[in-house]
């Protein structure tokens, strides 16, 4: 069929005419229906951190990229926050954003790291960063008394870890302990642990714990 005949056929056939909004809506419905929930693996790039209420980044492989968003109500449920260069698997649903340029993205519910090697790499890189900042310098280290007068513990009150620690401490030394209740996993853990350290540091001298333990029980490597 020649180009002219094809043009005539298109002009004569009963082909519906869509507005931009109508065709966009049709495409979104098809996309979200077929890929209602997916898992996508790729490397994180362009992560925005805490600049916005949501976290934005892209997932990429050797040939293509796809935009990703983590909405504010899901951030606290993540096992870890995304970092550039990590190989991950993102779970969520495909959605479309059409306010400016029409594009699709994955609305992320959860993230897992691809393999233990990636987790160990992330841990090593964080350790190097803290070492460069001087946080491991021996000048900051304090002597720990062999038998403390009082032990402060920052941990969850509901886990098995506090029960084990109480039992062992009382069996071996029988020294007073004080528990500061804290979340030890997820985004809220940072705030809770910092507040716990401040609480013990601000105690009066005669009541102050001279040893402080921040404790967490077992779990997967990814959770830790």
Automatic annotation (TrEMBL):
<dbReference type="GO" id="GO:0006308">
    <property type="term" value="P:DNA catabolic process"/>
</dbReference>
<dbReference type="Pfam" id="PF02601">
    <property type="entry name" value="Exonuc_VII_L"/>
</dbReference>
<protein>
    <submittedName>
        <fullName>Uncharacterized protein</fullName>
    </submittedName>
</protein>
<dbReference type="GO" id="GO:0003676">
    <property type="term" value="F:nucleic acid binding"/>
</dbReference>
<dbReference type="InterPro" id="IPR025824">
    <property type="entry name" value="OB-fold_nuc-bd_dom"/>
</dbReference>
<dbReference type="Pfam" id="PF13742">
    <property type="entry name" value="tRNA_anti_2"/>
</dbReference>
<feature type="domain" description="OB-fold nucleic acid binding">
    <location>
        <begin position="18"/>
        <end position="111"/>
    </location>
</feature>
<feature type="domain" description="Exonuclease VII large subunit C-terminal">
    <location>
        <begin position="135"/>
        <end position="224"/>
    </location>
</feature>
<keyword id="KW-0540">Nuclease</keyword>
<keyword id="KW-0269">Exonuclease</keyword>
<dbReference type="InterPro" id="IPR020579">
    <property type="entry name" value="Exonuc_VII_lsu_C"/>
</dbReference>
<dbReference type="InterPro" id="IPR003753">
    <property type="entry name" value="Exonuc_VII_L"/>
</dbReference>
<keyword id="KW-0378">Hydrolase</keyword>
<dbReference type="GO" id="GO:0008855">
    <property type="term" value="F:exodeoxyribonuclease VII activity"/>
</dbReference>
<dbReference type="GO" id="GO:0009318">
    <property type="term" value="C:exodeoxyribonuclease VII complex"/>
</dbReference>
<keyword id="KW-0963">Cytoplasm</keyword>
């Amino acid at each position: 069929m020649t180009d002219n005949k094809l043009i005539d056929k298109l002009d004569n056939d009963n082909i519906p005419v869509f507005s931009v909004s109508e065709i966009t809506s049709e495409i979104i419905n098809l996309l979200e229906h077929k890929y209602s929930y997916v898992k996508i693996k790729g490397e994180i790039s362009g992560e925005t951190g805490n600049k916005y209420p949501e976290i934005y980044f892209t997932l990429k492989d050797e040939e293509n990229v796809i935009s990703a968003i983590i909405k504010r109500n899901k951030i606290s449920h993540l096992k870890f926050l995304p970092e550039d260069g990590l190989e991950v698997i993102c779970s969520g649903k495909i959605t479309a954003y059409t306010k400016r340029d029409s594009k699709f993205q994955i609305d992320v519910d959860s993230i897992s790291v691809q393999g233990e090697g990636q987790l160990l790499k992330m841990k090593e890189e964080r350790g190097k960063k803290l070492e460069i900042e001087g946080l491991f310098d021996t000048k900051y280290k304090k002597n720990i008394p062999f038998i403390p007068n009082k032990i402060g513990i920052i941990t969850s009150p509901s886990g098995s870890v506090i029960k084990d620690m109480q039992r062992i401490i009382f069996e071996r030394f029988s020294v007073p302990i004080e528990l500061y209740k804290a979340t030890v996993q997820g985004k809220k853990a940072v705030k809770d642990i910092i507040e716990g350290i401040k609480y013990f540091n601000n105690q009066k001298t005669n009541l102050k714990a001279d040893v402080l333990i921040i404790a967490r029980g077992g779990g997967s490597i990814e959770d830790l």
